[in-house]
Design brief:
- This protein has 1 helix and 29 strands.
- It is mainly beta.
- The chain folds into 2 domains: 304 residues, Lipocalin; 103 residues, Immunoglobulin-like (Sandwich), CATH 2.60.40.3080.
- The strands form 4 sheets. It has an 18-stranded antiparallel barrel. Strands 26-25-28-29 form a 4-stranded antiparallel β-sheet, with no helix packed on it.
């Protein structure tokens, strides 16, 4: 099951992938998650100067609960290496990205005392900038790659995943074995995430998660149900309740983009709000829920480097018509810029020296939910978009032109 949720993680991760500017011209204060404390374990996080998690350490009296993750990033903020130190082994992942900061290959290694061995890999392909397939392969001792699992992604008109079709490789062909289905409400909130098995194309419900939100679109409850043929059980197998605290005025929150302490990584489904506690119930043999554990979230102030401001740009006025006197402005360094960042609402987009046509501009929150779409075509070198209606927090802006797609992280104050 862990591999299934691991792959789903990349749906959200790829929606949220950011290109973080490494030009230290602007800094801002954020409240970052410092640690998560439960009766069984404690997790602490360390960040780099751009707000990326560089280590995640879980301590516990129980040996099997202990681990430490270490992360390395490239200049764009993409995770290029992840190493897990467990009590009896070391696991390593290496990631390769394309020019749009989309992951195209993940290699997995294990070390049980005799050095790292390449055992598995994932290969990612895209269509129209959306994740199309994930191919999972086993690596033999001789280095040969053998197909194992393939997952194909289907999206709705809002570019949210609505189905993942999983196939197993057997007898030199792909066999359809299960689906992962997603349902959303009209606001784009994820309502259900379900798994359905197939046997000779006859479907059977396996499990599904159901989510409940408050008026602020914060997830307040998540229930897991198991299926029986074509129906779902009416009693949940486990339940999480989430509690939030009111953020301070102009307070920006920074949640780690990775949580390793839960196989289903329930934090993937949480918005960028000030989560302070979750409580967890599980079912006993009779099917009744009983309280298991709760976790408390603690925050610390952190100064991070964010994007560039307008004063860092160098623009040159160029006459393009001697007859009409028309002029245009072009950037000397030929790079995209979005400013001011952080912003109180108004965002200006500076286009490179090659004249692009902007086809659409999309703003996502940290869950990948679309907050604003501007699909009016624009051929001017400076475009503007207003996000003053959005609450303070971290967002991503995706700009699609006729020749490329740009994704950058922005901060709304």
């Amino acid at each position: 099951m862990k591999d299934k949720f691991f792959l789903f993680f990349f749906v959200l991760l790829l929606i949220h992938l950011n290109v973080v500017s490494q030009n230290p011209n602007t800094t801002m204060e954020v409240m970052a998650v410092e640690k998560v404390v439960t009766p069984s374990f404690e997790i602490t996080f360390e960040y780099d100067q751009w707000g990326n998690v560089i280590s995640e350490n879980r301590t516990s009296d129980e040996n099997y609960l202990k681990y430490k993750f270490e992360y390395e990033y490239d200049a764009k903020g993409n995770i290029i290496q992840q190493i897990q130190h467990a009590p009896y082994s070391i696991e390593k992942e290496e990631n390769i990205y394309n020019d749009n900061s989309q992951i195209i290959e993940k290699k997995l290694y294990s070390d049980y005392g005799s050095g790292f061995k390449h055992l598995k890999q994932y290969v990612y392909t895209y269509q129209d900038d959306l994740l199309s397939t994930i191919l999972f392969q086993i690596v033999s001792s001789s280095g040969q790659h053998y197909n194992s699992i393939k997952q194909e992604f289907i999206y709705n008109e809002k570019q949210q995943p609505i189905q993942i079709i999983k196939s197993d490789w057997a007898n030199n062909s792909w066999i359809h074995v299960e689906n992962f289905d997603f349902e959303y409400n009209e606001m784009g909130d994820l309502l259900t995430y379900a798994n359905v098995f197939f046997d000779n194309e006859v479907s059977s419900n396996n499990w599904r998660y159901c989510f409940t939100y408050n008026n602020e679109h914060e997830i307040v409850e998540r229930n897991l149900y198991y299926g029986s043929n074509q129906t779902w059980n009416t009693r949940p197998f486990n339940k999480y309740l989430f509690m939030y605290d009111q953020s301070g005025e102009n307070e920006t929150l920074l949640f780690p983009n990775i949580y390793q302490f839960d196989d289903i990584n329930f934090n993937w489904f949480l918005p960028d709000k000030k989560l302070v506690k979750y409580k967890y119930w599980d079912a006993d043999c009779s099917g009744n829920l009983y309280f298991v554990e709760s976790a408390d979230y603690f925050y610390m102030p952190l100064t991070i480097i964010v994007g560039n401001d307008e004063e860092t740009e160098t623009w040159t006025e160029i006459e393009i018509s001697a007859e009409t006197g028309d002029k245009e402005w072009r950037m000397e360094n030929g790079e995209w810029r979005i400013y001011p960042n952080p912003t109180n609402g108004e965002l200006r987009i500076l286009i490179p020296d090659i004249r692009y046509t902007i086809c659409d501009i999309v703003i996502y929150d940290m869950l990948g939910r679309i907050q604003k779409i501007d699909n009016q075509k624009s051929e001017i070198e400076k475009s503007e978009i207003n996000i003053s209606h959005l609450p303070a927090g971290l967002y991503f802006i995706r700009i699609t032109t006729e020749v490329e797609t740009i994704i950058k992280k922005i901060i709304k104050q």
